Amino acid sequence: MTSSLMTDLYELTMLRAARQAGIADRRCVFEVFVRSLPAGRRYGVLAGTGRVLEAIADFRFDAEDIAYLRSLDVLDEDTLAFLADYRFGGTVLGYEEGELFFPTSPVLRVEGTFAEAVLLETVILSIINHDSSVASVGSRMVTAARGRPCIEMGGRRVHEEAAVAAARAAAIVGFAATSNLAAGQRYGIPVRGTAAHAFTLLFDQEREAFTAQITAQGAGTTVLVDTYDVAEAVRTAVDIAGPELGAVRLDSGDLAEQSRALRAQLDSLGATGTKITATSDLDEYRVEALAGVPVDSFGIGTRLVTGGGHPAPGFVYKLVEREGADGLMHPVGKRSENKSTLGGAKRAFRLGAAGTARAELVLPSAAEIYEFERELMDELDRREASPLWTEATVRELQVPLIVDGEPVETPTPAEQVARARARHEASLAELGLTAEDGPDGHLAIPTITDGLLAAAVLD
Amino acid sequence: MTSSLMTDLYELTMLRAARQAGIADRRCVFEVFVRSLPAGRRYGVLAGTGRVLEAIADFRFDAEDIAYLRSLDVLDEDTLAFLADYRFGGTVLGYEEGELFFPTSPVLRVEGTFAEAVLLETVILSIINHDSSVASVGSRMVTAARGRPCIEMGGRRVHEEAAVAAARAAAIVGFAATSNLAAGQRYGIPVRGTAAHAFTLLFDQEREAFTAQITAQGAGTTVLVDTYDVAEAVRTAVDIAGPELGAVRLDSGDLAEQSRALRAQLDSLGATGTKITATSDLDEYRVEALAGVPVDSFGIGTRLVTGGGHPAPGFVYKLVEREGADGLMHPVGKRSENKSTLGGAKRAFRLGAAGTARAELVLPSAAEIYEFERELMDELDRREASPLWTEATVRELQVPLIVDGEPVETPTPAEQVARARARHEASLAELGLTAEDGPDGHLAIPTITDGLLAAAVLD
Fold first, then answer.
1. How many CB contacts within 8 angstroms connect chain A with chain B?
2. Predicted TM-score of the model (pTM)
3. Collapsed DSSP state (helix, strand, coil) of residue B360
4. Which end of chain B has fewer CB within 10 Å, C or N?
């Protein structure tokens, strides 16, 4: 199964028309960005970059694909021959996976001929939109959990392959584990599980179910206590496992009220080390509402894997610069009524001071970049004596990922996840947000597209 | 790639514990259903059944899977040996794909030993939840379009494999085509495409872009007219293609206002046969708002493939009946505070008269089914003389899909889609809803779980 048909037809018909017009080899720059974030979101989290690189490497049209495309009768043999030989030979730069993004952040840049770059639109957007949707809400959940582990358990609520990618995205933003075995296998993510109501119901008595589970899994297991009566179930479980009982899971009812009662009951039974894990339609708001409540970990499903009400972050793949008849590169952008695009291949920097991010600098042209470098770098030099300015940071956000068709690095899937997780943790720390700030608010930092304004941000 | 690890860990640890307790071979019945529909939804549409049957057939643990599971150190060798030999040998019944569902409709029933049935929970729910989410909203969009073709174009907004399944679900509920090539290849769905802004921007002049497209694709192509100035673009396109120009696409701005202006302009240029296709964040409400507006077809993306605000319909997989120590089958159901389950293996019937559905009958026990058959069938017999009652219909909704591990039929993927589309069209017609009823409302028909009430519905 190649990734090449995970593509919209129009990319191929545009290719054909551009080839016939003789300009399919014009050098182009496409950028991936969002125009805005959902209301209340302070930042977004980029995820999927590692999967994009794999999809680009796999992007080949095999004989069966070509036969199918021929059968559509919309492409000529010349275009089909081009596709049969297709291999991406261009250059890709992008934000590191796990990095934060803001409106207009150019999280991925694809440089190449029109022919080679236009074909990648759909598969790149599918991956980046999906994975970033999960990562962006997952990061908020981890913050709301205030250090208590979050376990991804949402696989059953989404497409079976999306489930695996969702577990990967959740791990990147700090989830401690997943229930999904395929995600464990592919990405080395720790897997965890408890038990379902079906297990308890299979037995004639709840006591028999708990005995069987504790016998098989050991006292450290997590038992599900709300199939019949919670208090009765807890007594039974502690009676069987003793105070070594690992954890109890609550999956219904008023979680705050029940958790407090559960904690008191467990303590009264001497099971002071037994943990409480809460599940049941949690999101960042419900987790936030459980601050101070004796819940030790969270199992989070639907709202995580479906992007917390924002299942598609709105990433687009836009031509921003291309070679003209004069052989020079020109910025381009549509002027549509409510969706105009800022032309020009951009460079992006996270500007900060003393470990704190202050602005997202997205510079849309060589002239702006020159102004920025001249003004800001001079400014930084001049102020070097100031303690604030010596700690100033200017991090360039785009790193090379593929150069002339060759991947810069080939980390294993597990390495990709580990690196992205570290990147996310470091970048999030720069925002200085805490759980006390609550899930919603204004954009954490402004996006600045004017090089001359950059210095002002740090004043 | 097998489907067997698209599974939550707890299914395997429950299996282990049940095996050790000696009751893993108890006969069980699991049912898939939703507790409710989203507010405003009159009905849901089941999709994914065909994909579920493929996933069950592929559900094998290969050597690599077993090695991975062994590495987790939570399963014993006895359980691993069972998994290595696993092959589903039970029976599956279900609603036909494309059928409507209502709260408690048992859209899928899995009968088998606990061991063989419990493992299928995650992959079944992933598929049914995802595909039904798209089908349920897509059906509303097709109704709102009032016979004008809808094209699925959302692949770039969701996981790349979910994109293909979404196109399949959209085709089932009446979408005319998809932009996704993989969906075209796998399911025989017609593929369509227009052009992107990048294509126009690639050229030095819009006229050159249109000339290239019309030369390559013929005058019947669809040109995108909002890259610069819409009126100017339309003049240019008609100038090049003549009145044979196939269609123009609008992707921004006020679609109603622009469509009217476009229609007037096209007509004034003599292009009276040129169609207008609208895209840009459409959903059933925006399509409804374009009733009476001269738009000839709709390209629908994000809101379709993300389930129109309801990305996960909430299907659950619940143990409803199982063998007890006495060797007899017993209905079971949890009694959790806000999520109790109606026990008992159910049979379901769509009850109607004169081609109109009146109720969803979900009978939770043999006794209820007996009452229903006795009361209602007698009633139908008695009233046969009445013209209304001669047309009464009692359609049993669950059909056998797998019997003792063997699929009842093995339609091709394209046949699955065609059949499901026919089923959906027929079942939707029975509700008697029209676009004039608007997208939202009460549940179209009640769900009745008491056999004695069945006759009353038809009075």
1. 353
2. 0.96
3. strand
4. C
